Queue: 2 jobs
Job 1
Amino acid sequence: MNAPGNAPQWTPYLRSLLRMAIGLLFFQHGAEKIWGFAGGRIDHNFGTMHGFAGPLEVVGGSLIFLGLFTRITAFILCGEMAVAYFRSWAPRGFWPINNGGEEAVIFCFLYLWLVTAGPGPWSLDHVFRKKTERCGERFISAGAPEPATVKNH
Amino acid sequence: MKQAIASWEIYSRSVMRFILAFTFTLHGFRHLFGFFPASTGRRALIPMALDGLPSIVGGLEIAGGFLLFAGLLTRPVAIVLAAELLAAYVYSAMPRGVWPIRNGGNEVLVYLLVFLYFAAAGAGAWSVDALLQARRSHRVAAG
């Protein structure tokens, strides 16, 4: 129905749903390292890179799910995923599909995008923002020659 | 500052699309030609749910992956691939267990959600779709 450049009005809400799901999926990895979620390997050596990833993923995943401090959290987690890829997966092979690091690659670039995209309307960031700032949150649709303003509310 | 970062969204969405399309296409080569045999990698060696589908879908993955990488016909392609990923999750991940982290369906869910977002939001600035649209609007403006 839509021309290629015109995103539908509800796209920011879809972004919020995507962000929540990503936060939950990411939370699992921290929960497995701290509490042994779903039979995972527990690692309480918080001084090591692998152990420190546990709290980082639990706290980061929760913040991404809630949409609180989203951009900063996503930036930190993006860096964490890059470190995770090059430290633990890249030595096992060149191709992400083979060395087990596919998920780390995906999450890394997903968070990089989330830094720029922001949390969307269904988020604590949005609730805590001043009401005047809330109107007219910018959403730039794909390939539009110049930034188009779409009202979310 | 925030406005400046937010204005990069169309570019970072394209970067994310390049990477996801690339890693997704590798699954197609694994399916069709048996490249990248799953020998190393993950500790518990959970087979990825996507590889549990019949190998004929490899063609879909390669064609769809290349189209998505180029950003051509992004919306319909993303919907088709999302349907395939949903099938992969239901068919090969769900019988293995409840939690995505243990049934090999974590990547599949991430791909699925992001492709759905591409289907709604489009391909971003660096894409054939954007080029075509710019040309079209240029022609309209020129009359």
Note: Chain B touches chain A through 59 residues (CB under 8 Å).
Job 2
Amino acid sequence: MIKQHIKQAVQLLKENRLVSCISIIGTALSIAMVMVVVLLFQIQLSGYYPEYNRDRMLYIQGTEATSKNGTDTNRGGMSAEVVRECFYSLKTPEKVTAIYSENLPISLPNKRLFKEYNVKYTDDGFWSIFNFRFITGKPFEKADFLSGIPKAVITDQTARELFGTTDVLGKNIVINFINYSITGVVKEVSRAARDSYAEAWIPYTTKDQLMNLQYADGISGGFNICILAKHSKDFASIRTELKQQTARYNEGKQLYKVGFAENPISRLDIAMGSEGFRKVDYKDFILETGSLVLFMLLVPALNLIGVTQASIQRRKSEVGLRKAFGATYSKLVSQILYENLVITLLGGALGLLFSFGLLNISKDFLLENNTMINSDMLFQPGTFVATLFFVLLMNFLSAGIPALRIAKQPIVEALKGNE
Amino acid sequence: MLWFQKRSNGWIFIELLLVFGALVTILDALLVDAYTYFSPLGYNIENTYQLKLAKLNNKAPGYVPDSLASLSETESLLKLMENIRQNPEVEEVCATFFSCPYSFGNSWTSIIPTEEADTTKVNEQSFQVRRVTPEYFKVFSVLDKEGKAVMPQLSGIQDAVVLSADLEKQFYNNQSAKGKRVSFSGQANGNQVAAVCQPIRPSDYEISAPCFYQVLTGKMLEEYINYFGAQQAELCVRMKHSKTKEDINYFLEEMGDRLNSGNLYVYGVKKIEDQRSQLLSYRERNMKIKFSLMAFLLINVFFGIVGTFWLWTENRRGEIGLRMAIGSSKYSLYKYMNLEGICLFAFTLPFIILFMLNMAYFDIMDTIRLPLSLWRFCITIGSAWLLLAGMITLGIWIPARKATNLAPAEALHYE
């Protein structure tokens, strides 16, 4: 039966090429716009190189130092002391890493240069949380980190720019007049992977200004934290343990106390637009994004309703005849929905392709500058499920109303074929 | 005629109404943005760069412990500025503290006129203060109300302040503030107002807010440098000619050791225009999203109109053929169809005006940056109307051409 409907639908499509084209392209456009919204969300949410474990991660983005008498609040990152006392001491997570990032020129030992690179100051835990592909060499180790030995990992792109080759193990680069020897070269990272992205990574123990900050009783500094849990079920217990550590740390402080506002936040929170100091409620997100998506589906759906309505109108006598021979209400409705599904499915497939193109054109203003988009960000099962969902929704919106209407009509009316 | 077609026209009417409403909202927001964007900023950042300062790491070669340093922090900074100023490609260099245009830094402090002004009207209130050395006014071409340079007016005045024109108006109404004294941060005897500059807008998408400049020289400058640290100063440079990224990096490479002074050194450079685009990228992103949404809506209207009128002509081929057979010209037929489309569209107008009035009533539109006025309504509604009418005309043209190209005999055949 379904096969019959589809055959009939294809026949109808051929009959009125222009209108069919318009319907398909219209559907495709609207699915494309909706899918861009979905893909942007997906890029924020799903895991890809080198942040494969995003579903198990918690983030501390922002720290609050409040004076104990309550008059002064300082918002920013945290100091190395807070990282050590409150985070490295956590037992529940698998790994914890502290990150401070800055744009700095990288020079060569014999030549001072001023071109800036994104440099991340971090620790050895960073390399077990994020899975980088090393082209040569290996990360700096715990011992290097603890004793502040100036070693660096750089991307293949940075290596080529500075040395013209990626075969640079053991060579030196100069950051703030300090010689760092290169221990590893990794494949470059997309800016969309915001926590791991950099062009060079060095141990933060090599920057004395970072180690000895005294702002707000030694609490404020530049660090943010990424925590890798053994399992996402552990999130609650990690939050509890962090609260205990913070309370213990604050007891020992004279003037200020540390707080983490809404942190730690999960990847889902970040994808919905939350930040460390401002959490977006699930309801607000769904309401806001949902209404945008619905609007983008509704406008083309109105187009389609007009077209479907008109084409059904012409087939009124057919419907009347089928009814007279005993076709049920639900059968008639599903016939029209199936026929329309051919249009929306074609449009959906085309729309998904459009959306990849659209994302590529508009990535400059939708994502941060120079963000690379990889196929493993786009081709996730979620992409296809979402497309199918919106196709069905579109189908229902555009064909549902005319179908219900015509199926309700009395047989005699329908048989007459009058408007 | 419209009424008879109400079934299929109804949907397109609802669509037009929705799209019209969305367009008007988007266009209004864009109009306000554009209006604000094109009003004068109060300063000029063309060819200006910020040099980023740092202090040597204690492990770095050449590091001198503070106790052994021959130059004080202030002396190091002033020497560095002098080194840069002497380069023939540099027009002027200044230092600011958290006050460089388009930086994230902003300091606020309470300020009050010390003499005569109507103290009943002026409450002690906080305003944004920019802490700058006198050369700032030349680097960023800040002019006074008459359009004259501010910098020469500062010479010889100790601890001068420069008020923005809107702060002057707030303090002294229509009197001139120049030469009067104001007091801020609790200082009793006050500082002399050396000049009044044009209104300053913090960024391209904001309107001007009353603010003032504290001019740092001599002892005061030293105090600030010792308090914040010389590496916190923003060194802003105006170059004589525009430079590419490579050019400016090359310029710094050429300067070499002259960019070091004591433990202080220049480690990098940022074009202030780049900093501006970084700061405004959020706004620009927003605007581009609005444009894309608008294009999407217009294309949809186009499709909707083409589809609806196509079916319309299909269903009435006989009538069209008859009309043509009795001598109605292609043009008049087209005119007739177009009229129908535009009529349909015209019916949305009262709803939209109601919608706009409603928005205005509930104060949803941005009235801070651009007050409501008749011309604002006319421009937004007018341009949205023109855009949509254009799309409709285009959408009708395609099916109309197809219909009228039919030979009358063939068309009659359908009758």
Note: Chain A has two domains: 2-49+282-416, 63-260.
